[in-house]
Prior knowledge:
Elements: E1 3-8, H1 16-29, E2 33-39, H2 41-50, E3 59-63, H3 74-80, H4 85-94, E4 100-102, H5 107-118, E5 130-134, E6 140-144, H6 154-172, E7 178-182, H7 193-204, E8 208-213, H8 215-220, E9 225-227, H9 230-252
Parallel strand pairs: 1-2, 1-4, 2-3, 6-9, 7-8, 7-9
Antiparallel strand pairs: 5-6
Amino acid sequence: MTVRIAIDCMGGDHGLPVTVPAALDFLKQVADVRLLLVGPKEAIDQALAKAKQVDASRIEVRHASEVIAMDDPPATALRGKRDSSMRVAVELVKNGEADACVSAGNTGALMAISRFVLKMQPGIDRPAIATQLPNQTGGTTTMLDLGANVDCEPQHLLQFAVMGSALVTALEGKERPSVGLLNIGEEVIKGNDTVKQAAELLRASTLNFHGNVEGNDIYEGTTDVVVCDGFVGNVALKTSEGLARMLGGFIRE
Length: 253
């Protein structure tokens, strides 16, 4: 089956000079995929003309006249730029013309537009940002939320666990992925009220809840999924990125 992916070509810090070459490299590596490149048609056509060995049969350009800047407030992106490359790409998914959408653009805008256009699944109140981090077992730890939701209620953390478990099942084929709740200690008495109440909800759920986990458990691979609010998750992610850059610099020296 051919997978159709809509690409927001104007997203990210550099836009077209990066997204179009990256999309073409992806086509060379993956056979059963078709790309819908979204953005100013003339500019995308020019970028494609400069590239070598372009398989035009697997590419379609969709015009979008507006661009969401990295510092645009989500409300501005949602209400004021209805023909942005990001929104057009997301709407291609809604209309069934694409199976997925990829954007490296404004995260807040992407969350707002996706929630408005695609709506939420029943029982899920908010979208979350997830990533897979390498761990010491040779596998990965799926962590969410990483910044979409700074303030969360206990039920939101439960919902993140549901989404994280579903993601791991889809990507890795694990029927009942283990779930850990990021906390300042493994003990049940640790954490603020939100985390404690979330732990109670997780224990009462049908998920494979391991219990509380600490920051070191992310990279030890203690659980398949680690759940936290977006504030904590974003700090943990950026700290990890900074440490990796520092260690990489030491190694190169």
